[in-house]
Amino acid sequence: MSTNSTxxxxxxxxxxxxxxxGLLPExxxxxxxxxxxxxxxVLEMDVVISADNQVVxxxxxxxxxxxxxxxxxxxxxxxxxxxFNLYQMPYYLIRQCDxxxxxxxxxxQQPQPAHKPLLSEVLSEVAAxxxxxxxxxxxxxxxxxxxxxGDDIYHPKPARFxxxxxxxxxxxxxxxxxxxxxxxxxxxxxxxxxQPNLATCLLLEEEQPWLPSLQALGFVPTxxxxxxxxxxxxxxxxxxxxxxxxxxxxxxxxxxxxMRRLITLQVEGITTDYPDVLGPLHTM
Length: 284
Description:
About 30% of the residues lie in helices and about 15% in strands. It is an alpha/beta fold. It comes from Hymenobacter negativus.
């Protein structure tokens, strides 16, 4: 062990967004395992509910035409409302859909056949891979994709949605290493009421002000997850003054200049589609 007493550089946590969306298809087993091998501190993922009440790892509660084929293997034409509502599909049918098509926003991504996995499947595969790699356990940021407009259309009401997710996290015994993320304050409020020690993160869109949004939440979560464009030195200082100890983990940061700026502001974590880029910045 080195006896060098020189202070180490500040190092924010690396949160692999949907695994590593810039490299492999999002929210897939392949992406999570690759992010794990890259050494991320936290795996970020989204969850929705199927017609048979399975917790499915997916960003949209429908098949995204940009990355998914339908159950018959055909391309999906964009439509409004979206076709193939996952909340109306049993999981066996969802699993038949290939969602590993090349994302148009990530041309360097390596597409490959991939299904939408169950949350339980992801947690099991990650635990096994962690043991094989001999690395410390990774933590999880689980975003519950809930909106008031989507109740009983694209997902259950908040209490039921939350109970299904917590059941899976408890069964896998990973609740202590998990943070629940949501833009929907209702989810976080119910979670805090029933389990006040549960780590929670309030996500904010670019137009949502930090301090008023926290005040409206009614309690202090573990973490604030703002759009990275809203993170300024002044905003960070005001938050630190009003809420000492509240962590800041901006999303989704993919440009090196933005990563460097946020490291300078000493945010606690950075969510990125490119953990292979962010990780090495800590040593430069």
